[in-house]
Design goal:
This protein is α/β, with parallel strands linked by helices and 482 residues long. It contains 14 helices and 20 strands. The chain has a 7-stranded mixed beta sheet, with helices on both faces. A 6-stranded mixed beta sheet has the order 9-8-7-10-11-19, with helices on both faces. It has a 3-stranded mixed beta sheet with strand order 1-5-4, with no helix packed on it. The structure holds 7-thionicotinamide-adenine-dinucleotide phosphate (TAP).
Length: 482
């Protein structure tokens, strides 16, 4: 019997009015970079150039930090919390109003399906601003003494996997706590940060409170190393995080590092298996697996290994890969040629080390950067695909017999960001959660985010927490502290 397929349902781009080029956002206005360099940002699904953006040099970083310092001293740190809160509520409302446009920009620049940017990223971005707006006049109740103080200028560097959401995680708590910011978005996904700069103008945010500097690694390095930056907040790879920790050691700067992960998604034989399979798919194929807390290691109890694998591969066969702007698309494009190269190299290491590769049948578009949903079985804990973060749509499957073995295998990683447990027994969930060395443990669900809930890792996944009341602490000095 012929199968019926979905008709194309592309989201319109008409709502988005991109400029052909963008300057740096310093002191409330867009300005040209001092050294006049720029680079192109492309749509990874088509390789079409979307816009030209400026590359900030060390001299531009000086200008932005000076503007942030002025705004901190003269305006922002002097405003009562309820006034800061009003600005944040205004920004949150503008994000909600412009969410369709922002979702389209995010999908074009990042390659993620519009269904995800529209239904996950943007609602969470607005929710983070609403949430921290509510904290601005209640900092005395954040558990840091009755009169916690802001730190000053925050330097913030973010990655490309959730561009606007990572900005929200960083900017919203920093501003609520009374700090000003200089933020560098990732080189491959600068557009929504630049649209956010327009939103700051629309909200009449005082000049210099938010500064956005586009550029590559050296720009990020210059922001975080700047002597007049009081607080360093970084999300990205463990390798770069390590170099940042070394660079700021001894400077007195406060540091938050949100780094990589190799999360275990653990399925017991008493789990509701259909639900668990959906959770496995969401855990590793959401956002093409470009998720720091992805459930990239599946640990299945041996007695249900075959039924789980059969049902998983059957389900993966139904995922639709293709145009990220199509509302029916499940798997979008890989963000860059460079990331595609990393994914391919690690998958080839899986083949070379003897694991068995299974790939969902799908036609990859001829232009752009694509990788099909892939599952490796026969994986051992020594394999690179079980130890290293692939940051792509690749799942490594291992098995276990007892809960103790599941814990030992799950914890056998240098990372410690996330884990998932699938079982019908509440007591087993609690027993496991106490033993798993991960910052976030989900039970019978995966990849759930909420602005009220702290998020972060330990070991090589970094330190400090973002989200919730805990997310305010890195931006505040409590009474008696520096
Ligand atoms: P990175 O290469 O580390 O880049 C992250 C950001 O840092 C980018 O803006 C990058 O600029 C900039 N950067 C590069 N070198 C720098 C340096 N020496 N000093 C200061 N900034 C520098 O990571 P990525 O490939 O973009 O992102 C993927 C990684 O981020 C994964 O490991 C993932 O797990 C992690 N991640 C973690 C989390 C959390 S919450 N733990 C969330 C998302 C992602 P360019 O873009 O120009 O290179």
């Amino acid at each position: 019997m012929a199968t019926l397929d979905y008709a194309p349902a592309p989201e319109s781009r008409a709502i988005l009015d991109l400029r052909s080029s963008y300057g740096l956002f310093i002191d409330g206005t867009f300005v040209d970079p001092l050294e006049g360099h720029g680079f192109k940002t492309v749509n990874p699904a088509t390789e079409e150039v979307l816009a030209e953006v400026a590359e900030a040099s060390a001299a531009d970083v000086d200008r932005a930090v000076a503007a942030a310092r002025r705004a901190y001293q003269q305006v922002w740190s002097r405003l009562p919390g309820r006034e800061r809160g009003k600005y944040l509520f205004r920004i949150a409302r503008l994000i909600a109003e412009r969410s369709r446009e922002l979702a389209v920009a995010e999908t074009l620049d990042n390659g993620k399906p519009i269904r995800e940017s529209r239904d996950v990223d943007l609602p969470l971005v607005a929710a983070h601003f609403f949430y921290y707006a509510g904290w601005a006049d209640k900092l005395g109740y954040a558990g840091l003494g009755t009169a916690p103080r802001p730190l000053g200028v925050a330097g913030q560097v973010i990655p490309w996997n959730f561009p606007l959401l990572m900005l929200a995680w960083k900017v919203a708590p920093a501003l609520a706590a009374g700090n000003t910011v200089v933020l560098k978005p990732a080189e491959t996904t600068p557009l929504t940060a630049l649209l956010f700069a327009e939103i700051c103008q629309q909200a009449d945010l005082p000049a210099g409170v938010v500064n956005i500097l586009t550029g590559a690694g050296p720009t990020g390095q210059a922001v975080l190393a700047h002597p007049d930056v009081d607080k360093v907040a970084f999300t990205g790879s463990t390798a770069v995080g390590r170099s940042i920790a070394a660079a700021v050691a001894g400077t007195g700067k406060r540091v938050t590092l949100e780094l990589g992960g190799k999360g275990a998604n653990i399925v017991f034989d008493d789990a509701p298996l259909d639900q668990a399979v959906e959770g496995i798919v969401n855990g590793i194929f959401f956002n093409q697996g470009h998720v720091c807390c992805a459930g990239s290691r599946l640990l299945v109890q041996e007695s249900v290994y075959q039924p789980v694998l059969d049902s998983l591969t059957r389900r993966l066969g139904t995922l639709r890969l293709g145009d990220p702007m199509d509302k029916n698309t499940d798997i979008g494009a890989i963000n860059s040629a460079e990331q595609l190269g990393r994914i391919r190299a690690l998958a080839e290491a899986g083949d070379a080390e003897g694991a068995t590769r299974w790939t969902a049948e799908c036609t990859l578009p001829s232009r752009g950067y694509w990788f099909p949903p892939t599952v490796f079985t026969g994986v051992t804990q020594a394999h690179r695909i079980a130890r290293e973060e692939i940051f792509g749509p690749v799942l490594s499957v291992l098995t276990f017999r007892t809960p103790d073995e599941a814990v030992a295998k799950a914890n056998n990683t240098p990372y410690g960001l996330s884990a998932g447990i699938w079982t019908e027994k509440g007591s087993r969930i609690l027993w496991m959660a106490q033993r798993l060395r991960a910052g976030v443990v989900w039970a019978n669900t995966f990849n759930r985010f909420d602005p009220t809930s702290p998020f972060g890792g330990y070991k090589e996944s970094g330190y400090g927490r973002e989200g919730g009341q805990h997310g305010l602490a890195p931006y505040l000095a409590s009474e008696g502290s520096q």
